[in-house]
Amino acid sequence: MNSDEAKLIALRILQENLPSLVSVDENALAKASFDGLKVAFTPSAVIRPKEAPQIGEVLKLANEFKIPVTTKGAGSSLTGGATPLKGGWVLDLSCLNTIDVDADNMLVRCGPGAVIGDIQQEVGEYGLFYPPDPSSKDFCTIGGNIACNAGGLRCVKYGVTRDYVLCLSGYLPTGEHVQWGRETRKFATGYNIRDLWIGSEGTLGVVSEAVLRLIAKPATQKTFLAAFQTDREALRAPIELSRLGIRPSILEFLDQWTVKSVQSFTGKEVFPGISPHPVLLIELDGDPDLIDKESIILENWLKEAAICSKTADSLKESEELWVVRRKASPAMKKMANTKLNEDVVVPLGKQINLVECVNSLREEFNLKIGVFGHCGDGNLHVNFMYNSDDVDETSRAVEALKLLMSKVNELGGAISGEHGIGLAKTPFIQMQFNTAEWETMTSIKKTLDPNGILNPGKIFDIFNPWDQKKVESILPWEYSHDEPKPVET
Ligand SMILES: Cc1cc2nc3c(=O)[nH]c(=O)nc-3n(C[C@H](O)[C@H](O)[C@H](O)COP(=O)(O)OP(=O)(O)OC[C@H]3O[C@@H](n4cnc5c(N)ncnc54)[C@H](O)[C@@H]3O)c2cc1C
């Protein structure tokens, strides 16, 4: 039997066994052919399980007939993680979206398709809090967040997805059911495959249920916006504030170039009468007493370190301070038809070296490059804007991007802090590992997925996103540039 015959037989068995779950119509296949990266590869079927064991059935069959399977949550991956590069089957888990709050034990059990915003809303009704908050929280799923070890704005105080996962149930690529971890606060029993699955981008197994740890909901929050003379002064904040004993829940940086771009986009000055400067957006949260105490220390620091600052005393005022951050991505998107968002991460004290590198790349290559993001974690988003139909500009952008990634590596950083490798970061991954490290990773993949059926082509094989034609499609969460939009990272 050749591989085309095997594919047809497997699809026929799949349709016989799970008739109501399998779609092969053109529309369904086109919709499942791409994600937030917008490069398309058409699958041969889309499967939407209604019950967890159906995941196992699909994988068993796919493994037997060596059919590639790409698991999908909301498809908001910015790296092509949920793109079915090798065709095959897309396993869409968005219908498995149950949320079961166990308030006594301060945990929640979720289906993989549960949307982060819905989880936060439901646990909030019990006075509980699930802190990880990717800006895509209104649509991205917990399965996708676990697969990418998603971060977001609040990680500086609360940590990333990994810090809240107690237990994962799921299926091996060969179709057997497994449970990694327990509903316990500690776990030191055997290899920690739970943490191996977290961040493995759907290449080692499929999550069918996650048990998440919850904490008490912070009572209130307070927002500050400050402008600094130089990048260096602003980027001292994570270390200085830690030394002063303050733990902001949000600590975001925008470089001068980004602030200038936002001002041209909105037609409003961030600090009226003051030319664009690097800014920090800072949020404190917790009990009012704690916020009062931390506010005094923070305001004193800002008086010394910043050139000016504003404080919000109401939610409305806070929203106004957020405008510069919320508009950063829309302002950049309007500049060109392509925006590459690199979510690099470097040690806290090395962020200034990264920003200085971007400043010189911008000059040397005559490119539009802006930096903003989670400086509390060293996770800065470097955005390259270029027109893909301009061959010269594209090649300058790619060249500059390569130099940026080398710099990140040289600074002891990582090429992705929260979006994962997917397809988009594969050209740079090998520089991050020596032979022993690389072989350790590839042998784990071979052991857990002997036929290489799960999300093939991701992480390990080189794929140049800039050589691909982009899908002309507006995803459900993409608003027009002038409408409110999620804060994009
Ligand atoms: C506007 C916008 C803002 C964003 N902001 C942030 C941010 O602040 N922080 C951040 O970290 N990311 C952010 N992202 C990126 C994206 O939302 C995250 O990577 C998110 O984790 C993807 O979730 P998803 O449900 O869309 O997963 P998908 O895109 O569907 O899949 C992502 C990966 O997860 C795998 N996967 C999905 N479900 C499962 C499962 N059940 N079992 C195993 N593997 C699975 C897929 O195979 C794929 O490799 C943003 C994206 C957009 C569009």
Explain what the structure shows.
- This protein is an alpha+beta fold.
- It is built from 17 helices and 18 strands.
- It has a seven-stranded antiparallel β-sheet with strand order 15-12-14-13-17-18-16, with helices on both faces. A five-stranded antiparallel β-sheet has the order 5-6-10-8-9. The protein has a four-stranded mixed β-sheet with strand order 1-2-4-3, with helices on one face.
- β17 (368-374) and β18 (379-386) form a beta hairpin.
- Mean pLDDT is 96; it is low at 480-485.
- Bound molecules: flavin-adenine dinucleotide (FAD).
- The site of flavin-adenine dinucleotide (FAD) has 39 residues, from β3, α5 and β10.
Short synopsis of the structure:
The chain is of the alpha+beta class and 489 residues long. Among the domains are: 99-216, Uridine Diphospho-n-acetylenolpyruvylglucosamine Reductase, domain 3 (2-Layer Sandwich); 220-329, Alpha-Beta Plaits, CATH 3.30.70. The chain contains 17 helices and 18 strands.
The computed structural class is alpha+beta
Roughly what percent helix? 25-40%
- Give the rounded overall mean pLDDT: 96
Strand composition percent: 15-25%
Query: How large is the radius of gyration?
Result: 23 Å
List all distinct small molecules, including ions and cofactors, that are bound in this structure: flavin-adenine dinucleotide
CATH architecture of the domain at 99-216: 2-Layer Sandwich
- Seen as an oligomer or otherwise, the chain set is single chain
- Look up the CATH topology of the domain at 99-216: Uridine Diphospho-n-acetylenolpyruvylglucosamine Reductase, domain 3
Distance from first to last alpha carbon: 47 Å
Q: So what's the CATH class of the domain at 99-216?
A: Alpha Beta
In DSSP terms (H or I, runs of 4 or more residues), the helix count works out at 17
